[in-house]
Design goal:
The structure holds 2 protein chains of 2 kinds. By secondary structure, chain A is α/β, with parallel strands linked by helices. Chain A has helices at about 5-10, 25-35, 55-65, 80-95, 125-135, 165-180, 190-200, 220-225, 235-245, 245-250, 250-265, 285-290, and strands at about 15-20, 40-45, 70-75, 100, 155-160, 180-185, 210, 270-275. In chain A, strands 1-2-3-4-5-6-7-8 form an 8-stranded parallel beta barrel, surrounded by 4 helices. Chain A is globular and about 60 Å long. Chain B has one domain (about 1-210): Rossmann fold (3-Layer(aba) Sandwich). In chain B, strand 2, helix 2 (about 35-50) and strand 3 (about 50-60) form a beta-alpha-beta unit. The longest helix of chain B has 13 residues, at about 35-50. Classes of the chains: A alpha/beta, B alpha/beta. The interface between A and B is medium-sized, with 37 and 30 residues.
Chain lengths: ~290, ~210
């Protein structure tokens, strides 16, 4: 199923993401996905997230689909040139994978292979354009595809709490012009900034899913504030995590905070995207506390 | 060394449509290749149309001190122009754009690489000689060299406090581009069609030479 159909039905669309392991065994990951993520609309599979080499997104998407889940194939432009990207898009279509999230990708220098060549032959916008082109039955080189062309739901990302939000909005507009049909955002910890962003973004008329990362610990928050672009966790929120160490360790405080952010932002967006980062088991209680179950 | 090649006439006409322009020719590396004949034809035509406020033909505009002295002599002609059209390599265009911050500065040429010595390139500007000059879409700041990922369709999500995710000392090139376009009142340029880089051009042109 295409995620765009759920938006068209007016659903508040819930997705979550899984990160493939550094290895070729996915039994645990599949079990977790089936247990905790089977009743949401779709599951993103990250593509060598943070430039750390892992099992491939496409293979895990296929495995999830075989288990009856709806995968979203994340694709970055860091590791493949346009020939490899187009070829993987055709492979995805052959497997019946219908949802894409198209990103530029982090630089190789941020990951565990800093010696690698960063490709960036295409970027997020030209990759969206490439998918549109394939959908018209022609590849980026201008050559015709054989048979019925593929058809995807084309997603993209935007960073609503970025310190350069106007530059982000300009990029979002280019993504929409290139053919993006829905957006997932960077993790949000400042609902008022997100709401202001949505006031401006609604002119593009595309559904936006609020990005959520459950805050696990004070250390994680400090790390993200110092190192992760587009994220600022307010000091009062960090104080909440400091207050009761046991409650924080058990994930109760983090889930409470995340649920509160979802409730505050829900009237302004069309869905939520949860990046659980190993806390997939907390997703059901988060959705319940956010009033989504 | 490098080859500067005039962009097609259609592109230059659309850039300068309805505008008075001041023209700068840089002959600094002309022993290698500068499209002298085509450049003269173009400028004669534009002058006949009454579009030109002045022409400066000089060398090594990539040297900022040199450039400043020469531009000062043409201050009135530049002031009377709506835009400045530069026939030089990408470094030259960026040096002019850096100096004339409030004036739209357009590249009339694409720059292709040749092995060997390159002008008197100052460290602050760089031209990758990509053969499809983007400076007209980016307010005279090169997205190929000012962005770690050489992105041509806008900022990635990796800038924090205005700095690049790869190098915390490096300003985000696309934030610089956005600010410059805002300053020029030309944010509409960001609505241009999706750009897809063409890695074939330089190879083909080098072969053709």
């Amino acid at each position: 199923m295409k995620i765009t159909e759920a938006f068209e039905r007016g659903e508040f669309v819930v997705t979550a993401e899984v990160g493939p392991p550094k290895g070729c065994h996915i039994e645990n990951m599949l079990e977790e996905a089936k247990t905790y993520l089977s009743d949401i609309t779709a599951v993103n599979v990250t593509d060598n997230q943070s430039s750390v080499m892992r099992l491939g997104s496409l293979a895990v998407c296929k495995a999830l689909k075989d288990e009856g889940l709806t995968p979203i194939f994340q694709m970055t432009c860091r590791d493949r040139n346009r020939i490899a990207l187009e070829s993987d898009l055709l492979s995805a279509a052959m497997f019946g994978i219908e949802n894409l999230l198209l990103l530029t990708g982090d630089h190789t220098k941020l990951g565990d292979h800093p010696q690698a060549k960063p490709v960036f032959d295409l970027d997020s916008v030209s990759l969206i354009h490439t998918v549109k082109q394939l959908e018209s039955g022609v590849d980026l080189g201008g050559n015709e595809l054989v048979g019925e062309p593929p058809k995807f739901a084309k997603g993209a990302v935007v960073s609503p709490c970025s310190d350069s939000v106007d530059v982000q909005l300009a990029k979002m507009e280019r993504k929409v012009a290139a053919g993006a049909e829905y957006f997932q955002t960077q993790a949000v910890y400042e609902p008022e900034k997100f709401i202001q962003f949505m006031e401006k973004a609604k002119q593009f008329g595309k559904p936006v899913q609020l990005g959520i990362v459950i805050p696990k610990s004070v250390g994680m928050c400090r790390y993200m504030n110092a190192n992760v672009a587009g994220i600022h966790i307010p000091e009062e929120m960090i104080d909440e995590l400091k207050a009761d160490k046991e409650k924080t360790k058990a994930g109760i405080t983090g889930v409470e905070i995340a649920a509160r952010i979802i409730r505050e932002c829900k009237p302004y967006c069309q869905g939520v995207h949860i990046m659980a980062m190993g806390w997939e088991s907390k997703v059901p209680s988060l959705l319940e506390q956010a009033g989504l179950r | 060394m490098l080859i500067t090649q005039l962009k097609d006439k259609e592109t230059i006409v659309s850039l300068t449509e309805g505008k008075k322009v001041f023209i700068i020719n840089c002959h600094g590396c002309k022993e290698v290749h500068f499209p002298e004949k085509e450049a003269k034809e173009l400028q004669d035509e534009m002058t006949a149309d009454g579009k030109v406020t002045g022409i400066l033909t000089t060398d090594y505009i990539c040297n900022p001190d040199n450039l400043k002295l020469r531009l000062e002599k043409h201050a009135e002609e530049i002031k009377a122009a709506d835009a400045v059209l530069v026939l030089s390599c990408g470094v030259g265009v960026q040096t002019v754009a850096g100096y004339l911050e409030d004036k739209p500065v357009y590249a009339a040429c694409d720059t292709y690489p040749l092995p060997g010595f390159q002008g008197v390139t100052p460290l602050e500007y760089d031209c990758d000689q990509c053969g499809e000059c983007y400076l007209n879409l980016t307010g005279g700041i090169c997205p190929i060299t000012a962005c770690s990922k050489s992105l041509v369709n806008g900022q990635c999500g990796g800038s924090k406090n205005g700095k690049c995710e790869v190098d915390s000392e490096m300003e985000c090139g696309w934030e610089r581009i956005y600010r410059r376009l805002a300053q020029l009142g030309r944010l509409d340029v960001l609505k241009c069609p999706t750009q897809v880089r063409n890695y074939a051009t330089d190879e083909e042109v080098s072969k053709a030479e």
